[in-house]
Amino acid sequence: MVAFAAASKSLKNPNFQSTISHLFRFQSARTLLVQSVSESVKLQKLADSDSGIWEVNLERPSSKNAIGRDMLRGLKHTLESVNRDQTAKVLMISSFVPKVFCAGADLKERKTMSPSEVREFVKSLRSTFSYLEALCIPTIAVIEGAALGGGLEMALSCDLRICGENALLGLPETGLAIIPGAGGTQRLPRLVGKSTAKELIFTGRIIDGKDALSMGLVNYCVPAGEAHLKALEIARLINQKGPVAIRTAKRAIDGGMEVDMESGLVLEEECYEQIMHTKDRLEGLAAFAEKRKPNYIGR
């Protein structure tokens, strides 16, 4: 009975539950470690039927994944590696640290910087997130726990955002007498509208996953601990589609949002013309006619 009671107590322990969730997550898909360019950023790619799905893992538990120089350098190099590899079809960004996606900038490190160093760091952070946004493949932010400041700005730079109900999202920079400087003032209003974005930034209000879903900040809000599974489900759906078509659709959507409708339609026509001459388009038609699963090669 003592052993049973101890086991029951362990099962109810939040740390134990996080560990089990962490282990189960990587049993759901076979992964191969590609590289570790810094202590806090790891890059993995899924294998077998999930080949084409890559994942960036943030792992700096001592600071709740706060972004310092090492993490920023690792994130930049990792994204460059993904961009160079033609086998990458979709990218997920998630955290190895329980109950946190990314707590924002490393303020302890920031205190040691001179004004010019702060300016250069924020500039590099902004350009890295812009690089993430401009990747030609779809990107998915997997948010469990806190995504604050620069952490939310990273998620905003992704194409899709999936969060758990326990997520805490916000841009609290005005409480430190600064403003979001890595894209938050530009990307947030484009997602949730100008008035809502102003309220969130002016007040620094932190919202939960359900509120984030209701205002269009995230695509899905699922029970706590299930965001990775949902993101993997979506990544697998994307991975089954024609790679050239996915990349071209992203270009058409992103480019079209920055111009008027007429110019956007011209861009769509140009993008459609590019896929007319692909082998994948012919394979899609053949597979449909033959009632089989298509075998896309990305050409």
Q: How would you characterize this protein structure?
A:
There is one protein chain. This protein is 51% helix and 16% strand. The chain is α/β, with parallel strands linked by helices and 299 residues long. The strands form 2 sheets. It has a 7-stranded mixed beta sheet with strand order 1-2-3-4-6-8-11, with helices on both faces. Helix 3 packs parallel to helix 5 and helix 7 packs across helix 8 (194-203). It starts with a helix and ends in a 9-residue tail after the last helix. 35% of the residues are buried.
Please give the alpha-carbon distance between the first and last residues.
63 Å
Q: Indicate the overall shape.
A: globular
Number of strands: 11
How many helices does DSSP assign?
13
Which sequence of strands runs across the widest sheet? 1-2-3-4-6-8-11
List the SSEs and their pairings.
Layout (H helix, E strand, L loop, with lengths): L1 H11 L1 H14 L3 E5 L5 E6 L6 E6 L10 H16 L5 E6 L4 E3 L4 H5 L3 H20 L4 E5 L2 E3 L1 H7 L3 E5 L3 E3 L13 H9 L1 H10 L3 E2 H6 L5 E3 L4 H13 L3 H14 L4 H15 L3 H12 L9
Parallel strand pairs: 3-4, 4-6, 5-7, 6-8, 7-9, 8-11
Antiparallel strand pairs: 1-2, 2-3, 9-10
Helix pairs in contact: 3-5, 5-6, 7-8, 11-12
